[in-house]
Amino acid sequence: MRYGYKASAEQFPPRELIAYANLAEQLGLETIAVSDHFQPWRHRGGHAPAVLSWLGALGERTDTALIGTSVLTPTMRYHPSIVAQNFATLACLNPGRVFLGVGTGEALNETPATATTYPGVKERRMMLRESIELIRRLWSEERVSFEGEYYRTDRATIYDRPAEPIPIYVAASGPLAAKMAGRIADGLIATSGKDPQLYRDLLASLKDGADAAGRDASEIEKLIEMKVSYDHDLQYAKEACQFWAPLALEPDEKTGIDDATAMEEAADKILDRAHRRFIVSDDSDEVAEQIAPYVELGFTHLVFHGPGHDQERFLRQFCTDVLPTLHARFGID
Q: Chain-wide mean pLDDT for the chain?
């Protein structure tokens, strides 16, 4: 089991977020996974630091933590070759402790930055698969001339590459993406707080994809972002979720929204259910009990997302009370 911290770039300015990530490592969390947004979920009070720059600073402020994205979209506002170059440099600077987490994207991030039509889910999946192929070729070959359906390179070489391959994790919110992860990825990324059947379906599809590719699904990393609002004051823990009300929107309430002000307006209408995606508790044993079903399914890499604005308060209470409980119950890497 491995335990980590979700650095929420949508909520905090860059230097403040670095300080929280540094504190998380000091308090015993072993992974720092950062979100990559061009636009935040909320226009008022939201943030969106450039994560490729931010990760370089993070590497210099941490010593042993695994660092990476959860997740970045290497298909529209980034060309895959630029992602490959950035992460190769990051891994040269931080040997053995970098991962690239990727996903198919959100209109909120891609449309404002490019003013292009947002593709459908099937096309975005095809774009992601091709981008991963190109990124891996650029990490392992020289003079790469690539002729894909979506991307091209002409005699491209990345001159500074790490000695070891960088693992690529694919985010999946549905079975088809999970199956793709099973075929080609080093890891799967999911997020907690949804219908329990979804996770059974995701892991079954991951195995189907791995089997079809002649791979062992047990060797594919299974990371899940655990949304936990833990505080000694239970009412505070519940209210802390309100900034993240957009996560409680149903797909038909937010799909296609590409403006932070519109997303904020939609989220503010459902503040009464903002807490539903989170484990909200003032009891460390209760938190462990609600995490247990995810561990029993097979997730072995838990990255914790605390929703409140006072992240130091969350980190100190969580790592003092909850983390030892999780170590005792589920073990530690």
A: 96
